[in-house]
Amino acid sequence: MSGRYTELKRECYEANMQLPQLDLVVYTFGNVSAVDRKEAVFAIKPSGIPYEQLKPEDIVIVDYENRRVEGAMRPSSDTKTHAFLYREWSDIGGICHTHSTYAVSWAQAQMDIPIFGTTHADHNTSDIPCAAPMADSLVAGDYEHMTGHQILDCFEQKKISYKEVEMVLIGNHGPFTWGKDPAKAVYNSRVLEEIARMAYLTLQINPNAPRLKPALIKKHYDRKHGKEAYYGQEG
Amino acid sequence: MSGRYTELKRECYEANMQLPQLDLVVYTFGNVSAVDRKEAVFAIKPSGIPYEQLKPEDIVIVDYENRRVEGAMRPSSDTKTHAFLYREWSDIGGICHTHSTYAVSWAQAQMDIPIFGTTHADHNTSDIPCAAPMADSLVAGDYEHMTGHQILDCFEQKKISYKEVEMVLIGNHGPFTWGKDPAKAVYNSRVLEEIARMAYLTLQINPNAPRLKPALIKKHYDRKHGKEAYYGQEG
Amino acid sequence: MSGRYTELKRECYEANMQLPQLDLVVYTFGNVSAVDRKEAVFAIKPSGIPYEQLKPEDIVIVDYENRRVEGAMRPSSDTKTHAFLYREWSDIGGICHTHSTYAVSWAQAQMDIPIFGTTHADHNTSDIPCAAPMADSLVAGDYEHMTGHQILDCFEQKKISYKEVEMVLIGNHGPFTWGKDPAKAVYNSRVLEEIARMAYLTLQINPNAPRLKPALIKKHYDRKHGKEAYYGQEG
Amino acid sequence: MSGRYTELKRECYEANMQLPQLDLVVYTFGNVSAVDRKEAVFAIKPSGIPYEQLKPEDIVIVDYENRRVEGAMRPSSDTKTHAFLYREWSDIGGICHTHSTYAVSWAQAQMDIPIFGTTHADHNTSDIPCAAPMADSLVAGDYEHMTGHQILDCFEQKKISYKEVEMVLIGNHGPFTWGKDPAKAVYNSRVLEEIARMAYLTLQINPNAPRLKPALIKKHYDRKHGKEAYYGQEG
C-alpha cells in the first residue's frame, strides 16, 4: 500500500481493529475515523465489512462534504455524522462509534449517565449526556447529517464543553466518542462502556446513590488535566 | 469425505462450529441445519454430540418428512421442527437453535423482546415474538413437529413476516433463528442474544423505557434493506 | 506415577482441571472426587492447592471413614461431606463442589432455583433444592460431616430422588453436584451454573414468571432419560 | 537490571502484571506496591503507564515520606495512600488498588458489603466496610494522604482489625486491599471482586437475604485461620 493517505489509513485501521479486541463490537457494529486537518479529509471504515476481513487498504478517504476522495469502497453509513463533527469541532482528531452493550442500554433508556465516582470524574466533569431522539421530520431527511446536529444541540443546551466531556449517547441508538486522535477516541469508548456498566450496577445496589460531590469532581479533573496535574508522566 | 452431500455437510458443520466460538452454546445445547432446495433435503447436527468432538462426516442428511437419507448417526432431537419450517417457509436456507443465556431468559419470562433501539431495528421491524407454551395435549403428541406449528401460528397471529423478522422465542424453551443460509441463521442467533441482553439492561435502568418510534424503525430497516439501501457494499 | 490408584487419581485430576477451564472456580475454590466402589476408597483434590499447580500425583486417596489411604497431602477440607455421600448414595461415582458465582448467589439468597424452562427440565424433574443452614450446635461439631447430613435431610424432606436431581445448594455456602462419574459431576456443576444464571435473569425480566408445566417437565425428562428416549446416540 | 532493589521491583512488577490477567483493571486503572521493611522503602507502579508497556525497571522506589529513592518515573498518584498505610500498619507487606467493576459499584453505592456466605467468611470476619466520602476541606488539601486517614478512621470507628479484614471500599472511589505480601494483596482484590459480585446478585434474588450466622462466621474463620486450622497444607 502506498500513496498520499497511507499513514492516515493505517492509523484509522489500527484504531478500528482495537474495537473487537476491547469487546466493544460484534460483526460490523462500529466505526472509527481519523482526520488529517491539513488536507481537510478523514479516513473511515468502509460500510458493512466485518473486522476480521478489514485490511488497511479498505479504509476510505472522505472530505468534510462527504465526498469520497480515495478508496474503492463505500464509507460507513455514519460518515455524515463524522464529517459534521469534524467541521464543527476543530480540535478533535478522531471519532469512534460503537454499539457497546451498556452504553447502548443507557441510550435506549434515554437517560444521562450520572457521575457516581472517581472513575467517571477522572474522564469527565459532568454526567454523560444522552441526546433526545430526533423529530420524525428530521429522521426522514438527511438522517446521519442530522445526528451530528443532534449531538451539537445537546452539548449546547446542556452547556457542556466537548473538550471536557468527550462522549455522548444518542437516544435509542448508542455512543459516539472523540479525542485528540483516533486511539484516544477508542480509549474513550472503552472507558464509557465501563462507566456505563458501573453506573448501572450502582443504581441496582442503591437506587438512591448520590452523585459525586463537586469538590471531588474538581479534584479528580485537576489531578489529571489541571495546571498542576500530577497524574501520569511529565512531558 | 466424498459423496453427494459433501458440500452441504461442510456448510452445516462450519455453521455449527460457530456456535461455541460465539459463546452461544455449552456442551450440546444447540444445532444448525442447512437445506438443499433442489434435492429437498437438509443437513443437521447429530443428537447429543459435543461440539469439540463433531466432525463434518457426522452431519446427518434428512428429508422434509424426517427420514434419514445419509449418515450413521441419529439427527438432532429438534429435527422435526427444522423439517416443518423448511416445508412451510420456502425462502429460508438455514435454521439455528441455541439455549443462549439472555434469549432463553426472555423465553422463560414468556415475554416478547421490545424494540428499544437501532441495534434491534437494523435487523427487525417489530418486537421479537415469544410463542406461547404449547397445550398439554400437543406436548404429549408429536412434540417437535408441533414446535414448528407453534412458531408458524405465532407469526400468523401477530401478523409478522418471517422475511422481516428472522427470529423467534419459544416460551419456556429458547430461540430459533433462520436466514438465507446457515451462516445467516447463526449470525441472527448472535444478534438476537445481544438484542436480548440490551433490552434486559434497558428495562433495569428504566422500567418505562419507550419503544422506538415508527419513523426510526422504518429508517433503519430501509437503510439496510429498502430500495435505496446504503448500508454495506453494493452488488 | 505408578501404583494401585493411578487410574483413579488421573480421572480425579482431569475432572478437577475442568473446573478452571469451565470458569467455575478461582484459586482453590472447589474440589472434585472420584470413587472406586470395589476398593471402597475415593480420590480427592488436596486442600488449598491452586489448580495451576495441581499434579495427578498430588491427588489423595481416602476411605469412607475419612482415613487417608495414599498420598502425602492433606485432602480437601470438604472430604467428610464427600465420604458421607458416597456411603449413603451407592449409585454415584463422582462428586463436585464449587463456589461458582450464580449458584452461590442463590445459596446465599437461601432459595430453591425454580424450574422455569426446558434447559432446567432436560436435567432435573424439580426445582433445585437449597438446604437450610445448619443449626449452630451442628456447626460447632463435625461440620463437614454434618453437611452431608444436611444434603440427605433436604432430599428426604422434599421427597426428591438423588438420581433425578443430581445437584443441591447448601444455604449460605454453595453447590454440590454428583453423577455416575466425576466428569458427569463436573458437567452438572456447569449446567447448574447456567440454570442458576438463567433463573436469575428470568425473574429480573418477569418477577411473576410461571414454573414450567408438569407436561413439559415430563416430556423433556422422558426425551432424554425415559424408556423411549430419543435424545443422543443409541447404545 | 541490577541494583539494591532489584528483587523488590521484580516482586512488585509481577504482582502488578497479575491485575490485567485477573480482569481487575483496564488501561492504567490500578497499582500494587511491595514494601521492604528493613530498608523502610516500598516499590510501586509508575503513574499512568499501561500494563502492556510496564517493565520491571520502570517500578519506582519510594520511602514512607513519599520521597523517590530510585527510579526515573513519577510514582502512582496514589503513592501517599500506600505510604500512609505502610507507616500505620506495620504488619502488612503489600497493597493493591484497582477500579474493579463490582467493588467500585458498591463503593459508588456507599454501602458496606454484607457478609452473606462462606466465600466471604473464608476471608473476612465482618461486612467489608465502605469508608464515607471525605469532607470537602480535606479533598482540597493533601488528598491522597487523607485517603489513608479515611481508611484508618473507618477501621477504628467500626472496630475492625486490619489483620482480620484485609480489604476496604473508599466511598465514591473503589477498593484498597493489603496482605502479608503483594501477591496476597492482589489475591484479596480478586476475592473482593467475586464477593462483591455475589453479594450484588444475592440481593437481586432476595432483597431480604439474611447475613451469615455468627456460628458460621466463626467456624469458617477458624477452619482457615484458627489454632486448629485444617484448611490447606501444613507447615
Automatic annotation (TrEMBL), chains A, B, C, D:
Catalytic reactions on record: L-ribulose 5-phosphate = D-xylulose 5-phosphate
All residue ranges annotated as the Class II aldolase/adducin N-terminal domain in the record: 10-200
Cofactor(s) of this protein: Zn(2+)
Record-linked SMART domains: Aldolase_II
GO biological process, one term: pentose catabolic process
Heme as UniProt keyword: no
Keywords tagged on the record: Carbohydrate metabolism, Isomerase, Metal-binding, Zinc
Top-level EC class: isomerase
EC id: 5.1.3.4
Any one GO CC term of the record: cytosol
InterPro entries reported in the protein's UniProt record: Aldolase_class_II_sugar_metab, Aldolase_II/adducin_N, Aldolase_II/adducin_N_sf
Pfam annotation, one family: Aldolase_II
Any GO molecular function: L-ribulose-phosphate 4-epimerase activity
Family membership: Belongs to the aldolase class II family. AraD/FucA subfamily.
Entry protein name: L-ribulose-5-phosphate 4-epimerase
